Amino acid sequence: MTNSATRDDIVAGRTSLGIEFGSTRIKACLIGPDPTDVIATGSHAWENRFEDRRWTYSLDDVWSGLQAAYADLVAEVRARYDVTPETFGAIGVSAMMHGYLAFDEADDLLVPFRTWRNTSTGPAAAELSTLLGINIPLRWSIAHLHQAVLDAEPHVGDIRFVTTLAGYVHSRLTGEKVLGVGDASGMFPIDPATRDYDQRRVDLFDAHAAGRLPADLRSLLPAVRVAGEAAGTLTSAGAALLDPSGVLRPGVPFCPPEGDAGTGMVATAAVAPRTGNVSAGTSIFAMVVLERPLQSMHHEIDVVTTPAGDLVAMVHCNNGASELAAWAGMFERFSAAAGFPLEPDAVYEALFREALAAEADAGGLLAYNHLAGEPIAGTDEGRPLFVRTPDSRFTLGNAIRAQLYGVFGTLALGMRVLDAEGVALDRMFAHGGMFRTAGVAQRFLAAALGAPVAVGETASEGGAWGIAVLAAYLGHSAELDLDAYLQQRVFAAASVDVAEPDAADAAGFAAYLDRYDAGLAIERAAVAALS
């Protein structure tokens, strides 16, 4: 498309804006009438904080970061097209799922935001899993709420609304306390028949919590919306929050706010049964769309939904590529100290290529990427470890392959459970920054999962693009369901690279995973010994 035609689309508001709050970056993505046409992007770096033994982000950082990412996108639009956006066809907000944001009657935050990364909800999660007959992971919002009840926290009596980060930002921009069904499924179990909170389980919870909460559960949670449903419009106050310059006009329609799992499914066209995706960032998780409900409850698996409300088995690991990034950062610093500075992408390229030529089982080396607690591994806190025996082969390639395998280690343990359940998977799609180096992390993931892994052109675009696509879907939901829209309007001409499992890599990873599983005792001992 010519610059002139794109400029006309921007001026006329024939565009869709996606905003995603990731764990380390807030991203904005503007797309044209063709969802594959990325007009401009913007971003802002931010970091969680560990305060009073809880992982959190401040709400001031939410808004300053959002404004910075939006301003960065607007600056790119101006530089490319010599126009400043005044409106959009639709907007969508996405963010990290789960966690706990509790507000009082005046919509004031009662306690600092508790993110998905906190693992202090064990008693509540165990109690609710038994009560509801479904796995309630530590990070789910209902586990945080019930733990606050069990701990008799002073703020509980003042709670009038509980939501996720995406739901909070959406409510401030639109005035609507709603949530996309995918994000809502990480707050409380969803009934796939109604695509709403499971009423039988809501009743069980209300009876169990009677007298201990100031209201029934439904009145505390956001209303549920599915992909394609209207979810409010940008208010004047919301426009001023997003764009303090005053250029952006109110009235833009919003799609339902979604979690990063849902936008990852959209960004990889993995919303139909027998498809799945892996998202690798600060955390790593796999989503597999189910043909049927799971036969048993498993602590390694939580059942969530696609943005359209179909059941998904989720293997969520609190720790993803952060430890790998720390190693890459060390080598980046070494290159600079040696007088040959390399850009981060060049460092990753060199290290990944070295890993590709290493031994299939990483030479007997072992790496744990646990910066935070890892429920699947049975740890409440994290202690990153690198372990080797005297007879292991300590080479650069083996060390980096061990780190790459370590990113997928806990995930693979959870996927073993799905395999035992007989869950069928035709292809897994992968996205996230670590897949930018073509053919390396993708190949090792295929070996770890024993299934083909596809990486598309949008692999590093991630959730900001995914939620922009969901915003664009608002105008097409009356004619196409979500899967059909993705297949026909978004991915019909997409270029996809598929890596089949390599037999040697698969055998090497299996040996590594057996070692990894046995060595979890070392990780637990480190948590106990090193405070």
Describe the protein's architecture and organization.
The structure is a single chain. By secondary structure, the chain is an alpha+beta fold. 39% of the residues lie in helices and 19% in strands. It has 17 helices and 24 strands. It has a seven-stranded mixed sheet, with helices on both faces. A five-stranded mixed sheet has the order 3-2-1-6-13. The longest helix is centred in the C-terminal third of the chain and has 27 residues, at 503-529. The N and C termini lie far apart (57 Å).
Care to give the gist of this entry?
The chain has 531 residues and is an alpha+beta fold. It is built from 17 helices and 24 strands. Helix 14 links the parallel strand 22 (427-431) and strand 23 (453-456).
Please describe the topology of this protein:
Blueprint: H1 3-12, E1 16-21, E2 25-31, E3 38-45, E4 49-51, E5 54-56, H2 59-81, E6 90-95, E7 101-103, H3 122-132, H4 141-150, E8 161-163, H5 165-174, E9 178-180, H6 181-184, E10 190-191, E11 196-197, H7 199-208, H8 217-220, E12 223-225, H9 236-242, E13 258-259, H10 260-267, E14 275-280, E15 284-289, E16 302-305, E17 311-317, H11 322-337, H12 344-356, E18 366-368, E19 372-374, E20 379-381, E21 385-387, H13 396-420, E22 427-431, H14 441-449, E23 453-456, H15 463-473, H16 482-490, E24 496-499, H17 503-529
Parallel strand pairs: 1-6, 6-13, 9-12, 14-22, 22-23
Antiparallel strand pairs: 1-2, 2-3, 4-5, 7-8, 10-11, 14-15, 15-17, 16-17, 18-21, 19-20, 23-24
Helix pairs in contact: 3-4, 10-15, 11-12, 12-13, 13-14, 13-17, 14-17
Family: Belongs to the FGGY kinase family.
Keywords: Carbohydrate metabolism, Kinase, Transferase, Xylose metabolism
Protein name: ATPase
